[in-house]
């Protein structure tokens, strides 16, 4: 339920895709499973979640906090997907809320589990000649884990303690933590 900002940026090279200048594009956000083994059973996992949490959504847009989004939509049948239009030439920030936690999809449900990693994936499309947003422009994603506030604090503390015990050589294998995450382009 915590709102997280995702800044939408126009990352075209100069002169690239001039046909979208002054036009809107559509971005579709999805929360999906990061682990391949869970990707195979994603539909069943999400149906099970829907059955246990009737009326709830996995992903929402915090509309009052968001800037520059047009016509935000959440399809009632796709609990893990939201979409909106935006102008790449204007400042656009989307605040998303994930309403499920990573341990809801683990085998044991009594706490202390690692929790499954999710992925936030953003697919962006331009309009075709029929006015439909079907022409793929770009996809990017990043891995996330979602915990309840106390669980997240505890996880950060234990992760920090584990890192402090490692040798400088072992620490090099891990990426440092940052205030912001740049989503990785999906090809």
From TrEMBL:
Residues 1-187 form the Grh/CP2 DB domain. It is found in: Nucleus. Pfam families: CP2. Residues 150-174 have a biased composition (Basic and acidic residues). Residues 148-187 are annotated as: Disordered. Keywords: DNA-binding, Nucleus. Residues 177-187 have a biased composition (Polar residues). One of its GO terms (cellular component) is nucleus. The keyword DNA-binding applies. Its main location: nucleus. One of its GO terms (molecular function) is DNA-binding transcription activator activity, RNA polymerase II-specific. This is TFCP2 factor. It comes from Rostratula benghalensis (greater painted-snipe).
């Amino acid at each position: 339920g915590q709102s997280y900002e995702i800044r939408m940026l126009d990352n075209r090279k100069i002169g690239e895709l001039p046909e979208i200048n002054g036009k809107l594009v559509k971005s579709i956000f999805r929360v999906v499973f990061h682990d391949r083994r869970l990707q195979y059973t994603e539909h069943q996992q999400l149906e099970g979640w829907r059955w246990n949490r009737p009326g709830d959504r996995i992903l929402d847009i915090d509309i009052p906090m968001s800037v520059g989004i047009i016509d935000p939509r959440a399809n009632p049948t796709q609990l893990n997907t939201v979409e909106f239009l935006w102008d790449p030439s204007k400042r656009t920030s989307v605040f998303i809320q994930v309403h499920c936690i990573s341990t809801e999809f683990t085998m044991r449900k009594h706490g202390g589990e690692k929790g499954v990693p999710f992925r936030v994936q953003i697919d962006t499309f331009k309009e075709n000649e029929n006015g439909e947003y079907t022409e793929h422009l770009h996809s990017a994603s990043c891995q996330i884990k979602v915990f309840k506030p106390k669980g997240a604090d505890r996880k950060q503390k234990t992760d920090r303690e584990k890192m402090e015990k490692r040798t400088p050589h072992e620490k090099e294998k891990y990426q440092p933590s940052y205030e912001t995450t740049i989503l990785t382009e999906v090809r």
